[in-house]
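User: Earlier you gave me the apo prediction for this protein. Now I'd like the version with flavin-adenine dinucleotide bound, so I can compare the two side by side. Same sequence as before, with the ligand SMILES added.
Assistant: Got it. Here's the input I'm using:
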Amino acid sequence: MSTRNSHYDVVIAGARCAGAATAMLLARQGARVLLLDRSRYGTDTLSTHALMRGGVQQLHRWGLLPRVAAAGTPAIRSTTFHLPGAVSTVEIKPRHGVEALYAPRRTVLDAILVDAARSAGAEVRFGTSVTGLRRDNTGRVTGITGRAGPARLEIGADLVVGADGRRSAVARYAGARAAHVAPASSGVIYRYFRDDAADGYNWYFTPGSAAGVIPTNDGLACVFAATSAERLRRELDGGAEAGMRRILARAAPGLADRLDHHDVAGPPRVFPGLTGYLRDAGGPGWALVGDAGYFKDPITAHGITDALRDAEILARVVTTWGPDAVRRYQAERDGLSLRLFRVTGRIAAFTWTGDDIAGHLLELKDAMAEELAAMTDGRWGEPGRRLELASA
Ligand SMILES: Cc1cc2nc3c(=O)[nH]c(=O)nc-3n(C[C@H](O)[C@H](O)[C@H](O)COP(=O)(O)OP(=O)(O)OC[C@H]3O[C@@H](n4cnc5c(N)ncnc54)[C@H](O)[C@@H]3O)c2cc1C
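And here is the structure of the complex with flavin-adenine dinucleotide:
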């Protein structure tokens, strides 16, 4: 069976933080949006979920932060850095209407964004895979082919957005090139513990390994242990549980001991590592948001924040910059990403000393401050009314 009946302003592949946020913003601006995902609504994904201030700021601006809090997501009021020989705590100061950080489970955050996209008028279909791109005779992307169960779909669009994550099919079909590639990657093991007393982000760095505690929904704390991808492979020899215990014992011995007194909730989950990249942000008739276009190592816990940022940039430029939109999006995204991307690569390499890491974290802090300023200084202007997507 094949359906060839529809045309939308925008078709988006991938309905998690990048795709659902983009769909919501474009639909709020009056675009006719179709949001597709091959998986199911409200499911989990391989990711810890600490939001940095920029990500929380976006949720606040979009009016979604009360829903995150109402889902029982604990407010994070401090971040503590445990470095060799030094522990420092930074209190989260109320600014721009944001009083605390949050780390909602992806089952919570992604569902809130999908609901908001639907409420804004986007059509949402789960269980639907994008299997190809349609093009006109100039090579411009004009829609997608897809599959929903036995049904084959052909859907036209003025703009196709790939928000389909690290293994993006849209990026592959569009021929997006990686202009920047990270020098190294980390590997991560994480697990949930019952610990409703965990009350702030805690990041631990010691040469060769790192760890963190992220308080989240349902009285759980997400605890991760990280090292270089190469070393993680060796640590996994005796199984994920033993490997995690060993990395934690080096990175955060006190934490490792404390966790012995908490019940675990579910098995450890392993991310073996993936080299970071910054791909082309788009081309005629297509664009990439979130990990589809820009993946940086999870060691700096910044992917969701950047996905929400890029959803906003893309949604603004396509309605204000007409034919120049994709070029403008690329410039904004890359301008705000490169500093973060590079320092993340240095931290993920795990070749730093105890002295180096303090410098890397300061650089990260400055890069995050620059990004936050861009999110709050109105440089992208108010949402426009011009929908000239056919030439974007
Ligand atoms: C171990 C780990 C820990 C992390 N920790 C953090 C953290 O603490 N904080 C943080 O901010 N970031 C973190 N990140 C990064 C964060 O998970 C990503 O940046 C974020 O998930 C990107 O969201 P996305 O919407 O771009 O893609 P994804 O979340 O990957 O969603 C992509 C969606 O596309 C769908 N899809 C894929 N192919 C198709 C297709 N062909 N057709 C239709 N649908 C398709 C998938 O089903 C999926 O639902 C972590 C990542 C990892 C791996």
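For your comparison, keep in mind: The pocket of flavin-adenine dinucleotide is lined by residues 13-19, 36-39, 45-50, 129-130, 163-166, 169, 188, 271, 290-292, 298, 301-305, 307 (CB under 6 Å).
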